[in-house]
Amino acid sequence: MTTIVQGRRSQSYEPLLLENEREAVADLLQYLENRTTTNFFTGSPLSALTTLSFSDNVDLQRSAALAFAEITEKEVRPVGRDTLDPILFLLSSHDTEVQRAASAALGNLAVNSMLANLNLKLADNKLLIVKLGGLEPLIRQMLSPNVEVQCNAVGCVTNLATHDDNKTKIAKSGALVPLTRLARSKDMRVQRNATGALLNMTHSDENRQQLVNAGAIPVLVSLLNSPDTDVQYYCTTALSNIAVDGSNRKKLAQSEPRLVTSLVMLMDSSSLKVQCQAALALRNLASDEKYQLEIVKADGLQSLLRLLQSSYLPLILSSAACVRNVSIHPQNESPIIESGFLQPLINLLSFKDNEEVQCHAISTLRNLAASSEKNKTAIVKAGAVQSIKELVLEVPINVQSEMTACVAVLALTDELKGQLLEMGICEVLIPLTNSPSSEVQGNSAAALGNLSSKDDYSSFNDVWDKPDGGMHKYLYRFLTSPDATFQHIAVWTIVQLLESGDPQLISNIRSSNLLIPNIRNLASSRTSSPTSSIGTPHSHHSQHSYQDTDAGDGQGEIQLLARRILDFVDGDIDGLVPSSVPGSHMQPGSSVGSSTGRDHEELRRSVREAFAPGSHR
């Protein structure tokens, strides 16, 4: 830098320099000699640089631009308009060397610092650069035929685009079209910077749409095959963000037939971050049925299985999320099981380091069980229920909700009910009917209700009074709940227990001072308890279990079921005559008694989606 300033100045330049320029040159030389102790962003050093920047002498401008570039490369700090104005002036120069150095300096001032406190202040640099009109000359430089100028200008825009407040301004500035064009540059540095800038513009709905309109999709997809891992990463991540929007997924489906194949190949990349983002991109695409099927068709399952068994958390999380979405399609259930996913998914149930991984794993198992009795049997045989029993009381509430929902789905199969009961699953379901989460309560009660629809009821005698008050206290809590859904589950379950003909159960119910008075209350009048449009119980003997219904009179059926119980309890018959109870319906959209609106919506969603055969989530 010093030699650039000194150069031929003493011989050929000095006679042409203005007095203030000559003084500025002399001052700058002195400051550069003592650069380690000089603050160039204030006072006389900045004044000297400013004088040279605004000079009509292009050599002095070059010296100033190169000085700014070198200084900002070694020291980045928050600056004001007095620093940015001369750099922005240099940015508009017609001289290629000045442009290159000025854009490098500007990019340095917009860079992210590794220091958190400083980084917050440096955000002001990014905002101020845009506020002072920095985008327009940067766009002009992106159109320059000089690769070095292009590289620095695009790099600066990439850094500016890391600030959320700048993204929309960049999108509206006309920068997206040249950025998209430069993403195809033959110079790898320009290509990296351009794809990085495009990635930074994909974090909001509006900007993603503008990016799509600028023609970015085919460019990003084609660059998935780049030999450079950074470019692969930027493009994969950008496409993953673009695929968040349903309308964009449709465009991708119509115009990019090789997209899934390319992403599946990238899951075998040598770069862990590329593998991770490829799986996440496929996860977002798999929000649509077409892509759920296409991922399996493209042999994506084996790569996902390998990532799922990785020791690297981001890979586990991304692949688990992707498999969960892929498992939503009924046609994918058997291929996933046949590819060997069951044991790895069951192993992840105990992945206590990350709740999200546990949720994805159990939700996938639940989806795999949704449509096929064979698959349900395979899941139980692989040890899923035993793992659930061991873990469910200790895991976070969100995981408890998914686990109890999975048990409820598995309990729909008559051939499995006995196995589940022999495993002692009721011992953990009963305590969870008193969970602080209404969703966990409902899922657990529905699982118990589905298990009660069997021939051998001895297991329910074993848990009548224990643990935590057993079936007895659970049924009492639900009968006295202000939530009509819980009341409904309770009376339906009691009907199932009475229809069993088991003498011990019948005696326990008849002699209960907790249950019978509350059943009489429900039978005597139509209460104003709120109802909900969630999965509702049907008589086992009419070949039904908990299923979703859309409309009807839920309160009327609660009263009907309560009266049937009393007909038996007050009569001398040995059991209820099996009959087809009229379809149980509850008014959709109503609020739930003491539950919060959010809890109620969670419960409705959970039971509706979990307990209807063939449901997926």
UniProtKB/TrEMBL annotation:
Residues of the region (Disordered) are 525-553, 577-617
Q: Which Pfam families match?
A: Arm (PF00514)
Subcellular localization is given as:
Vacuole membrane
Q: Which UniProt keywords apply?
A: Lipoprotein, Membrane, Myristate, Repeat, Vacuole
Q: Which GO terms describe its cellular component?
A: fungal-type vacuole membrane
Instruction: Please provide the Gene Ontology terms (biological process) for this protein.
Output: autophagosome assembly; nucleus-vacuole junction assembly
Q: Primary place of residence?
A: membrane
Topology versus the membrane, per the UniProt entry? Lipid-anchor
Q: Where is the composition biased (Polar residues)?
A: 587-596
Annotated GO MF terms: protein-membrane adaptor activity
Q: Superkingdom, according to UniProt?
A: Eukaryota
Q: Where is the composition biased (Low complexity)?
A: 525-537
ARM repeat residue intervals: 133-175, 174-216, 215-255, 258-300, 299-341, 340-383
| InterPro entries reported for this sequence | ARM-like, ARM-type_fold, Armadillo, Vac8
Composition bias of kind Basic and acidic residues appears in 597-608
Family designation: Belongs to the beta-catenin family.
What job does the chain carry out? Functions in both vacuole inheritance and protein targeting from the cytoplasm to vacuole.
Record protein name field: Vacuolar protein 8
Organism name: Laccaria bicolor (strain S238N-H82 / ATCC MYA-4686)
